[in-house]
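Can't attach files on this board, so I'm pasting raw text. These are the components:
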Amino acid sequence: MKQHLSQLLSEALQALKAQGVLPVDTDIAISVERTRDRSHGDFASNLAMVLSKIARRKPRELAEQLIAALPPSGQVRNVEVAGPGFINFFLTTEAYHNAVAQALELGQAYGRSQIGAGQSVQVEFVSANPTGPLHVGHGRGAAYGATVADLLDALGYKTHREYYVNDAGRQMDILATSVYLRYLDLCGVELTFPSNGYKGDYVWDIGASLHRKYGDELKYSAAELFEGVPADAPADGDKEEHIDGLIERSKILLDATRYREVFDLGLDSILENIRRDLEEFGVHYDEWFSERSLADTGAVTRAIERLQQSGYTYEKDGALWFRSTDFGDEKDRVMVRDNGQTTYFASDIAYHMNKMERGYARVIDIWGADHHGYVPRVKAALRALGDDADKLDVLLVQFAVLYRGGEKAQMSTRSGDFVTLRELRQEVGNDAARFFYVMRKCEQHMDFDLDLAKSESSDNPVYYIQYAHARIASVFRQMQEKSLQWDNAAGMENLGRLSEAHEDALLVSIARYPEVVEVAALQHEPHQLAHFLRDLANEFHTYYNAHQFLVEDAALRNARLTLIKAAQQVISNGLNLLGVSAPDSM
RNA sequence: GUCCCGGUAGCUCAGUCGGAUAGAGCAACGGCCUUCUAAGCCGUGGGUCGGGGGUUCGAAUCCCUCCCGGGGCACCA
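---
Top answer:
Structure tokens for the assembled complex are below.
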């Protein structure tokens, strides 16, 4: 509709140019927006105000001329000038009835479109280190990323959902060593667990699996293990040096092959856990991309070489640096350390180079807000490689803080003291969790109120919306009990009978739904859809309380049932896009 | 110190990339259940849009500056 109206305005513009009212070279983007206030019509354009300076005419006068030049349209009932020079469009009732017909004919497809025209978009999200179960902070990235991908999918983009698995690096070595130490404990070896190790119960579980598989085969004494290892922090030592020492000793005692088996057991167990968790949360991936594979396939080396050829690198203090400051970064970054090991950043350059090579039209990275300092250097690397860094959108998700009874819940993977995503899902349910996570703009800090998410009352927006859907289903059940019929064709015929303000509001919302999906998708803002659904549910509940649907008058009854059926379809489709179920009864 | 994100009703948040009298939900107060689920609805009160400058027909929105909260500034991942 927006497009249709701006097309009309565009033709009017051409006409005024031909008349000499406007310079022929006038080039302007025509903006048509939904009005906030129904008394201002359905859509409004500020075109006349924007052009008034160029045309050297008063906005209202110019608006009159534009209106006079508008070609006729079957969708538009009236056009008027208002306020300082707005052009307000009033749509015909047929335009709205058409939306109802669309909702019912298209069903689940209503709101979907082909705006994306099959362009490929990669969405990478969550990508939490596989060093422990997902916690509630990851949950927000999961819900947000999945919804952004689903929204883009609804617009006809070809989406590729990806999880970057950090299966290399020091954190994973710490995990492997933590698992090994728990295993030794199960073998009866007495030892003090390092302060910097992973202490969660899941590490014991993996240690137990290891023990089941190998028995005492990997057993070494505490003396052998701690030989030459620097003291831990509580004993006046350094916890980092201590854990690094333990990693080294573990590698030596176990040898490369067996160490790798311990390492992989930890990795696979946790990854499997994460995978299942996300799957149950309705978050599906097309690909789990291994960081280790980048080194194995030589992609990291190739990325570094390409950067060296580009001339944006130099050596200093025995390390190889990337001159990211040439592209606006705060400081230059190391790619290869003085000990010869590549940095995480080097892997990330290779990973993004790989994404670009795969030829996506757009690449979206969804990161925790604590990684925002990382954006400039990744974009810098892409520019240095000669790639189009503007293809990459990095969306930053702020942390979610859980509240229970006003009390803040602490979380830290290392200490093992945290609320996992699974615990959250079990406590409040998938629906509430998915909805609450996307209720707020992603860059907004979020207070996640567990008590509210659990409450089965109108305070809880999820229940409120689902209840609207269930209530409509209930009306149709009642209809059958009363041996009444719903004739959709007759309903469509009689939509003209719907003259109540409540009905008008629902008609507008039904028609607006595809626009909401479009904006929410293109701006990566699922919260807009969440708010829309809340408003739509409110409009329905209000209507429900004010009027009977199952009335004697068959024509009116059919019209009302057709209307609420369309509303139900919209609620169902919207909830579905958010990963929330739409139950028929509650 | 510097950079990023926030600061809108008592609370939690919207505000459609400059538009028409700043909105919603909770909370508070007052009403509505022999009627399709009261898991609902109706009504009332509540605001210097953090402060101060500026840009223009017009600013919560853009620019400058200051204040407050959170985060980032590794040869960690």
